[in-house]
Write a structure and sequence with these properties.
The structure is a single chain. It is built from three helices and two strands. Strands 1-2 form a two-stranded antiparallel sheet. The protein has two domains: 58 residues, no CATH class; 50 residues. The protein is mainly alpha-helical.
Length: 117
């Protein structure tokens, strides 16, 4: 067999193939690869579409409204914190004022009692 014929033959585990047979096999492999790629592209597009619908269903009014809702919750929590902080401040001032008034009254009454003796 001349070298040119040997160069045109390829050996694999199934036997000897000519260059034309190898090209046909290669064309079939490319065809199936393209078909698989197309199939999986379609499947992933469907999956992406389903996931997009699922995520969007979590935000019926849209993601912007969802953000606004959380911003309003954060603002309400901050307002509540300021409110209770103000209550504690006023209560503390009231208790301190009452204690000072009680001490003042006690001192004045004690002085009155001492003066009357």
């Amino acid at each position: 067999m001349p070298d040119s014929q040997k160069a045109q033959r390829f050996r694999d585990s199934q036997g000897v193939f000519t260059e034309q047979e190898m090209e046909a096999i290669d064309a079939r492999i490319r065809h199936y690869a393209d078909a698989n790629r197309s199939h999986f592209d379609d499947r992933f597009d469907a999956l992406e579409s389903s996931l997009t619908r699922l995520i969007n269903s979590a935000f019926p009014d849209g993601a912007d409204k969802h953000h606004e809702y959380h911003a309003s919750l954060i603002q309400a929590a901050e307002d509540r914190k300021k409110f209770w902080s103000g209550i504690r401040e006023k209560l503390t001032l009231g208790v301190i004022g009452s204690v000072l008034l009680f001490v003042y009254t006690a001192v004045v009454e004690a002085l009155k009692h001492e003066v009357r003796k």
